[in-house]
Specification:
alpha/beta; Rossmann fold; globular
Length: 295
């Protein structure tokens, strides 16, 4: 009788433990499938305004390139997780509007990568060289822009109004649509300077931001309904990360807090599903923030 009871207990333990092991394996498999089920559709919007001038911000070029290295390495990790045959991710650089410099446009065409149109050999080439490819050509773009001092600027507001659906969002639900913007946070382009009451297409330190450099700035913004003019509310299938927000004047550091608040308010109003806005920092610190956002 005792022997029978002992065998019964052992059998029960084996079944229970085996069930727990299988449960853990299935859970781990589910987690793996969850991380692998999404392809990446990454768009990088670069602000080529005078923020990249060495006289204004000597760290801009270095920080931008280090940030983009982190992004390309994440893209590679996603490729590795999916495997060569299944990796169909996309990544590209945008400017808005398109630069008048033909050399820059030629360089940008080399940074449009669509793994869905490649064979395994092409994907292997992307995996092996994408970070070096982006680093090399971005250095060329910055050097060309700085040498000519042709500050094209960036009409980010109009990009969201007119172009973002066509350029940055794939309707295929197997993709994560991610837009990463590198800018100092101020908004301005000569072709988009207007407002509707206290909602503006631009944010400038020497203009509409000045009155909010006070201790109770957040309450004042809400009271006045001050912010960026919102022209759409249909971006729920988009994630947006803004990097390198930086006050143009160190004595007005509060601008960074105000700008971050206004950008987030704008994204919320456009129904963007996932967003963050970060001030400029050491590349190592920004790297952590990028990885946290993307993961």
């Amino acid at each position: 009788m005792k022997r029978l009871i002992f065998i019964t207990i052992i059998a029960f333990l084996l079944v229970t433990c085996g069930g727990e092991v299988n449960k853990k394996i299935n859970t781990n498999n589910a987690k793996t499938e969850k991380t692998q089920e999404k392809q990446l559709n990454i768009s990088i919007l670069l602000d080529l305004s005078d923020r990249i001038s060495p006289k204004i911000n000597s760290d801009a070029q270095k920080n931008d390139i280090e940030n983009i290295k982190t992004i390309t390495e994440f893209f590679k990790t996603n490729m590795a997780n999916l495997g060569a045959y299944k990796a169909k991710g996309m990544i590209r650089i945008f400017f808005s509007p398109t630069p008048g410099n033909t050399n820059i446009n030629s360089i940008v065409s080399k940074l449009i990568i669509d793994c869905s149109k490649m064979d395994n050999k092409g994907r292997k080439e992307v995996y092996d060289h994408i970070t070096e490819l982006y680093t090399h050509h971005l250095e060329q773009i910055y050097q060309e822009t700085i040498a000519t001092s042709a500050w094209e600027g960036s009409d980010i507001w109009r990009f969201f109004k007119d172009d973002i659906k066509d350029f940055c969002i794939k309707k295929d639900t197997n993709y994560r649509n991610i837009l990463i913007i590198l800018t100092d946070g101020y908004l301005y382009h000569k072709q988009s300077v207007f407002n509707n009451k206290n909602r503006f297409t631009y944010l400038l330190g020497n203009s509409n931001l000045k009155g909010y450099r006070v201790q109770n700035w957040e309450q004042l913004i809400e009271k006045n309904d001050f912010g960026i003019k919102t022209d759409r509310k249909d971006l729920s299938d988009l994630e947006v990360l803004v990097l390198e927000v930086k006050a143009e004047n160190a004595s007005n550091k509060i601008d960074e807090d105000i700008l971050q608040f206004l950008w987030k308010q704008w994204f919320k109003e456009m129904k963007i599903s996932h967003y963050e806005v970060y001030h400029s920092d050491l590349p190592a610190n920004t790297k952590t923030r990028i990885e946290n956002f993307l993961n």
